[in-house]
# Entry
Amino acid sequence: MAVEQHHPTYAITESDVNIRILSTINELHLRYRDLDEGTVAGYIPELSKVDPDLFAISVVTTDGKLYSVGDDEHAFTLQSLANPFIFGMVLDELGRERVRQFVGVEPTGNPFNAIVLDRQTNRPMNPMVNAGAIAVTGLVPGNDPTDRLNRMLAALGRYMGGAPQVDIEVFMSEKSTGDRNRSIAYLMRNFGTLTRDINEVLDQYFQQCAVSVNCRNLACMAATMAAGGVNPHTGERAISRAALRDVLTIMYTCGLYESSGRWVHTVGIPAKSGVGGGLMAVVPGRMGIAIFSPRLDSQGNSVRGVRVCTDLARQLNLHLFVAGGDTAPAVAPIDQPPGTDDTSIAQRT
Ligand code: GLN
# Structure
């Protein structure tokens, strides 16, 4: 009788990877469950009411599988996590050149709420910090404030795979206390970066910040970016590939504010945080990651979010310049005719 030869194989099968993701997020949840460093955001009064111990980790892979642990159905607000999505929407609506007239692409090295504009251009430095995000919000097209809000919610909904809601308490809380953002807006109006009514733009900005999600939703939103702009659950395109490339690039260089350099050095994947305690990261072609934990470090990033994402990236080999870097082909395959990459979302869907 012939003896069957068994060769050991080290290839990771899909199910292995899935078990690895699941066991890794469970292990990280246990590892950081008792970490209580940091404080919840207090400058928006409503945010200070959150239970600081809440903690969730969710991963959605580009084939739509969800891995999740902890308080993953607890609602929190996007805050600055909305910035990359609205930036992408405006890129698709107005085109890259037009948007670049209003906002730069340079990391600031400053806190997210710095009252600082680019010294040469007087534009905000990038769309991930408050100044840039407010300028981008001021570009959202529409007939009136309601139309603009609805378009913004529809754009976020394509990533979420559902209809997002604005948390009215959080919105009102920031609207009534947001003088720092108001100052930034006036400064930008002075330089011609904001041309619409200041109060209307700020209301819209505070509303986008107050959009309510849970950790599962946020992972799906990140996974949509990881999947080239197509929501892996609904199959709907949320953003064109060309705009997505710009969004991910700016998330990579500017997503973690003044920690952005350290972030790409140690973690190495595009990410974004919000003072509501959410943090998302995108591993192109592989997965979207979301962590929710409301205690923030001095820069406004979720303490446990940063720790979990750092360990996850190391344990699953997610750094962009490590994972697959040695096996990638020298020349990327051409999978679409030249030029289609720049087609706007309106034409593509
Ligand atoms: N709404 C917050 C603000 O404008 C968002 C800041 C953040 O999440 N980093 O201050």
